[in-house]
Amino acid sequence: MITVKPIPAGSMTAVRDEAGRSGWLHNCGAFVYSPTQPHRCGVCWSACRTGQAFNSQWNKAYTVRQAVAS
Predict the structure, then answer these.
(1) pLDDT value of position 12
(2) Which H or E run contains 43?
(3) Is 47 helix (H, G, I), strand (E, B) or coil?
(4) 36-68, pLDDT tens digit by residue?
(5) Which H or E run includes 53?
(6) Are 25 and 12 in contact (CB under 8 A)?
(7) Interatomic CA distance for residues 9 and 3, integer angstroms
(8) What's the rounded Cα separation, in Å, for the pair 9 and 18?
(9) What is the model's pLDDT at position 25?
(10) For residue 23, what are the β-bridge partners?
């Protein structure tokens, strides 16, 4: 299972996933790997929520892979 975790505000260290990447979490729940903040949310844009797509509600985030017990 992969979990998306926001990077705490004011964090001075760059948190990255196991592959060394970080990304952005939109307030709708969409996650995007990108070195810079995206211009718009593709999920909101596809759902015709154009006002929300451009609202710049992005938070720096990273992913964590966790083993799932069967």
Answers:
(1) 45
(2) helix 42-46
(3) coil
(4) 889 999 999 998 888 888 887 888 887 766 666
(5) helix 50-53
(6) no
(7) 18
(8) 21
(9) 87
(10) 33, 61
